Amino acid sequence: MPDLLVSARGVVHAYGDRRAVSHVDLDVAVGERVAIAGPNGAGKSTLLRMVATLLRPRAGSLTVLGEEVPKGARRARMGIGYLAHDPLAYLDLSPRQNLQLYADLYGVPDAAGRIDDLLDRVDLTARAEDPVRVLSRGMSQRLALARMLLHRPQLLLLDEPHASLDASGTALLDAELGAARADGRGAVIVTHEVERIAQVADRLVVMRAGRVVADEPVAGRGPAEIRARYEQAIA
Amino acid sequence: MSTATNHPRWTRQLGGLVRKDLRLELRTKETVVAMVLFAVITLTIMQFGFGTRDDDLTRFTGGLMWVTLAFTAVLGVGRSYVAEREQRVLDGLLVSPIPRVVLLAAKAIAIVIYMTIVEVVVIPLVGIFFVKGAYWDSIGWIALVALLANVCIALSGTLFSGLALFTRARDLILPVLFLPALVPVVIAGAGATHAVVAGANDMADYRGYCLFLVGYAILFLLVCVATYDAVFDD
User: Fold this and answer.
1) Nearest-CA distance from A217 to chain B in Å?
2) Which residue has better confidence, B8 or A79?
3) Residue A146 in contact with residue A119, Cβ under 8 Å?
4) How many domains does chain A divide into?
5) Do A135 and A223 sit in the same domain of this protein?
6) Is A112 in the same domain as A213?
7) Is the pLDDT confidence value at B1 over 50?
8) Do A86 and B99 touch (CB under 8 A)?
9) How far is CA B46 from CA B41, B118, B125, B126, in A?
């Protein structure tokens, strides 16, 4: 396993003429959880999508799980768990059918047992056969959490993960992020909830206008101190 | 900690994707029902438009059938990625370790199945509406050329629907790209059908058109394999 789960050097991405991410460096070590915060349009989600191999860097170099992207993107994808704004689930299929599809795509062994286990953990067993369309937003997000964890990824990439989750879903996610640190996985969490960062991350990266304007550990800092530091960085 | 998965087999990925498309279709019944209705309505309009039951339209049979199937294919292919697009699932597929060409193959298989269902209705209906003379004896040959043509339609259709997926005017762009690509399929399908209906039995002609369709399918298969990664990866 590589020492760095993510290593980005001077990565750039642009939508047409507008640079969304401009010469960004980012390292994520084994067992490290990095929170990326910043105002709207700062380039946080674009950076996350590049690390998820969904967007190619226009310049710079990006290595994910030891694989150079985009060349080794397919191998890197084996170890990436991605939680997006949308649940990335087919609305006319049931949670179980959606998870079965992703189990096939990732080649998950003993898929039926793993799916049962995850449905139980996200408290969706009773709704496992209902179409996703009839589930609440919170339930859909818990299904997305199960989908992300299905193939036991080494690197968790989460975009606003606490949005739409109820208290039990949030507790489950926070427990999973805690476990990620303990068992040597890593996580990149894009969030607006700066106050939560002390709970879920080891390091704070602040972005503004496509650039990193702060990158520092959060250990020993309380929510108020992190908020103050964030406000200072984006000022 | 390492991931629990080994490199997934592409056959399992393909099976999962095809099963998903068929499950979605069985649950929603949106695409195939619309395609069958469209084809039946088009043939009915043509039947009234081209003449009465007393007119012999046998020599137009191939053309009428394959023009109908071509437009029906545009309808079906246009809905290939509707679920992924409208339900915003595409990122979930693209972030998984799936070769993009497997994504194409799964969509192509679904289109072949949908077109085959349409043809189960259309081929007999064409015989009833337009053919005077022997038709039912040659229905096996027509089915064979239809199967070949379905593969051609599926390969070119999936390629163009993949290209159109990332454009704003996808509903306009797909027919503009796809219909011209279908012209050779219509020519070959109509020619092969004409060669075997009403006792024509021109098997040399029929074989020539079938070989042409095989060549067309191979060409588009190569183009798909060469380009599909680029179509989907940013």
Assistant:
1) 23
2) A79
3) yes
4) 2
5) no
6) no
7) no
8) no
9) 9, 17, 12, 10
